[in-house]
Amino acid sequence: MGQAGCKGLYQSLLDYKTEKYVIAKNKKVGLLYRLLQVSILTYLVVWVFLVKKCYQDTDSSLQSSIVTKVKGVTFTNTSELGERLWDVADYVIPPQSESIPDALCCEDSDCPPGEPVVAGNGVRTGRCLRAGSEQKGTCEIFAWCPVETKSRPAKPLLGEAEDFTVYIKNFIRFPKFNFSKTNVLDTTDRAFLKSCKYGPKDPYCPIFRLGSVVSWTGSNFQEIAVQGGVIGIQIEWDCDLDRAPSECYPRYYFNRLDNRFSENSLSSGYNFRFAKYYRDAAGVEFRTLFKAYGIRFDVMVNGKGSFFCDLVLIYFIKKSHFYRDKKYEEVRDLEVLAQMAESSAERGPDAAGLAEQPEVQDGGGAQKENGCVCRQLLQPASITR
């Protein structure tokens, strides 16, 4: 029984199977079958090719750089600062870290000299200062005096900054396709950037009015200028490189990034500190400390480039060998070419087809073998009779 089963299994391995087709003369079944085929074909053409463009190769490794410039001048007259003219050098300041005051002590040993106060404004001098007969005091520190006040401005100091402009210059490159682009219009007109303003119909003018940028996030400039805020500017490049380069243009999206829904939240608003230093006639150094409530712009860039994939062109059409030979070049060793020349000479001029070829002169033309100049094949064959 076991031997018969093994013999049958062995013989079945040597069997050859073929398919049998049955044609059903039924119009309903045939119509349903064709509708199914058309549906699949429509899905492939419309969704896969036209919508998703799966015939394209993509490059998401976007390389980008950004340059920003702010322009605008305003004048203020306050009791703290007096009359002052503000330009770009005064109100565009890199952000710096914040500090928090206080250092409690009971005796001098609690204030080691030279040690900075982590939550303070300076370094300890080694003395514990107490008021009257109180047991607890405060470590004396070596710092700038007086310390900053906690009061907030009632109205923005630079309310007219709403009409200031910011210039955002963006360079991008898709390294896979060696394609580069910028968000500035390619023109020789020097007056273009002086007169244009960004709008949905003018994506190649990267000059933005600050009030418009804030309004596009759903906020009011005069309100955000009091406590500050963070605005996100997202530049998106979604380029179909099969089309003209002029159709690859940036799209801008504006969002408020800080917590604007809670007025008492510590995370709402934006501020930073900076100082201006000077010396008096006696050589004593002074500084003016500013706590600025401002608007920070975070510019983020992302993108994707798509280009026709030549896989179908090279492998799946009738003339694929022609396109494949044009794309790929075959380089052969010189010894192989010499052997081919010798074998052609032995077969005779008729077989080689080289008898009519002219001799190669210096600076003249040359036959190309898949893009490589083969001077050995250009020499007329010598025939011995």
Automatic annotation (TrEMBL):
Q: Where does ATP bind?
A: K69, V70, K71, T165, N271, F272, R273, K291
Compartments, record wording: Cell membrane; Membrane
Q: InterPro entries per the record?
A: P2X5_purnocptor, P2X_extracellular_dom_sf, P2X_purnocptor, P2X_receptor, P2X_RECEPTOR_CS
**Which reaction(s) are listed as its catalytic activity?**
Ca(2+)(in) = Ca(2+)(out)
Keyword Secreted carried by entry: no
**Disulfide bridge positions per record:** C105-C128, C111-C139, C196-C205, C239-C248
| Gene Ontology CC | plasma membrane; postsynapse
Topology of the protein relative to the lipid bilayer: Multi-pass membrane protein
TM regions (residue ranges): 31-50
> Pfam families annotated for this entry?
P2X_receptor
Major localization class: membrane
GO terms for biological process? calcium ion transmembrane transport; response to ATP
- Which keywords label this protein? ATP-binding, Cell membrane, Disulfide bond, Glycoprotein, Ion channel, Ion transport, Ligand-gated ion channel, Membrane, Nucleotide-binding, Receptor, Transmembrane, Transmembrane helix, Transport
User: Which stretches of sequence are listed as region Disordered?
Assistant: 347-368
Q: Name one GO molecular function term.
A: extracellularly ATP-gated monoatomic cation channel activity
Is Electron transport there in the keyword field? no
Protein's job: Receptor for ATP that acts as a ligand-gated ion channel.
* Self-association and partners: Functional P2XRs are organized as homomeric and heteromeric trimers. Homotrimer. Forms heterotrimer with P2RX1.
* Family per record: Belongs to the P2X receptor family.
Concerning NCBIfam families, the annotation shows: P2X
The entry's protein name is P2X purinoceptor
Question: What's the source species' lineage?
Answer: Eukaryota, Metazoa, Chordata, Craniata, Vertebrata
